[in-house]
Design a protein that fits this description.
Blueprint: H1 2-23, H2 57-60, H3 76-86, H4 92-97, H5 104-113, H6 119-125, E1 132-134, E2 167-169, E3 191-193, H7 201-205, E4 216-218, H8 230-234, E5 241-243, H9 251-263, E6 269-271, H10 274-281, H11 307-318, H12 330-354
Helix pairs in contact: 9-12, 11-12
Length: 358
């Protein structure tokens, strides 16, 4: 075994020696040798010449042609031709011709569904009998067409424009408070959707000019709308529906609204913030909601009660709300009971408003 192993090792050694000898026959350079640098035979000069680039701004963007508005007495071919000219390269003519009935409203619905309501489209539509316009949120997304410019909404303020428009929706679109000044003079506007538009109290006050026509107002998910906007809402005397869901309006504002509706004998459906809804659902945990004699319900006669009677009334309410303090001086108990009864009266109006009794 040892001899066999020796022969094997020797054979390996012979092979290694043969490789070493055979490789030495090549005069190859070292593996990492660097080439020698030689100086250039001649030199040359480089001249730098600065030149400014000029662009032809006039030729970079084609001028858009002004297209006359569509009128109700225009034939279908003329109307479709005007819209097709306003939106070239999107095969709009083919889409419009596929409509069962190419009325102005059907055309604007198609434009809205595809996010094509822009300044040019509104200029074409301003003399038509279109009744509803919906601005699509996709028009304003970073991945959308972004067709709406700063002057788009100003088209609504054109004289004698959109006289038949009854419904307008900006739902889901970020607008500025001042944008709403352009819809002041729409003579037939009755439904206005401003859900998630980012407007605040100033925007609500700009709606007062619509008080004679506005019947449905959606202010949902505008957190900058607070109790300070309630006075403006009170001017909208013809509202039959109001949504203040997910706004900054709390029970103080809701009580003021309910009191006004009761005084004006005004009935209105309303969506209220969740915090207000939670309060109303648990109103019996805040005080005794139905006091019976000799307990009082009128806050204005608290001043006629003796200290013992004030304390007895406070104890009755404290049985439902342990946070109510039942002791103190007579002026302190008087103020405390009066406040409880005032809130109770207003809360009952809120309950009546929500039940449709206002």
């Amino acid at each position: 075994m040892s001899r066999g192993n020796a022969r094997f090792v020797g054979a390996r050694a012979d092979i290694a020696l043969k490789r070493k000898c055979s490789f030495s026959d090549f005069d190859a350079p070292p593996k990492y040798a660097r080439s020698l640098q030689s100086p250039p035979d001649s030199s040359f000069d480089v001249e730098i010449c600065h030149q400014s680039l000029r662009y032809d701004a006039k030729g970079s963007t084609p001028e858009s042609k002004e297209i006359s508005p569509v009128r109700d007495d225009d034939d279908i071919a003329t109307s479709i031709g005007k819209f097709d000219a306003a939106f070239p390269s999107i095969r709009l003519r083919e889409r419009l011709l596929n409509l069962d009935c190419a009325t102005a409203q059907n055309i604007v619905d198609l434009l809205a569904e595809n996010g094509y309501i822009n300044e040019q489209a509104l200029k074409i539509l301003l003399c038509t009998a279109v009744k509803s316009i919906v601005f699509a949120p996709s028009m304003f997304d970073e991945n959308g067409l972004n067709l709406v410019g700063d002057d788009t909404y100003s088209i609504f303020s054109y004289a004698d424009s959109f006289r038949s428009l009854t419904e307008l929706s900006f739902a889901g679109i970020r607008i500025q408070n001042e944008d709403l000044q352009h819809i002041h003079h729409l003579p037939s506007l009755s439904v206005l959707r401003l859900n998630e538009t980012g407007i605040g109290n100033e925007g609500v006050f700009l709606l007062v000019s619509l008080k004679r026509t506005l019947t449905k107002l959606f202010l949902t998910a505008n957190y900058d709308i607070t109790n300070d906007a309630v006075p403006a809402i009170l001017f909208l005397i013809n509202l039959s529906f109001l949504s203040i869901l997910d706004t900054g309006i709390d029970m103080i504002g809701l009580r003021r609204l309910a009191k006004h509706m009761d005084e004006e004998d005004h009935v209105m459906d309303i969506e209220i913030p969740f915090t207000c809804e939670a309060y109303v659902d648990n109103v019996t945990s805040h005080y005794l909601i139905n006091p019976l004699p000799p307990l009082i319900t009128n806050p204005h006669i608290c001043g006629h009660l003796l200290s013992a009677a004030l304390k007895r009334n406070l104890e009755a309410h404290a049985a439902y709300n342990p946070s109510i303090v039942t002791s103190g001086t007579r002026p302190e108990m008087l103020e405390r009971l009066s406040k409880i009864l005032e809130i109770r009266q207003l809360d009952l109006l809120v309950l009546g408003m929500l039940e449709g009794n206002c």
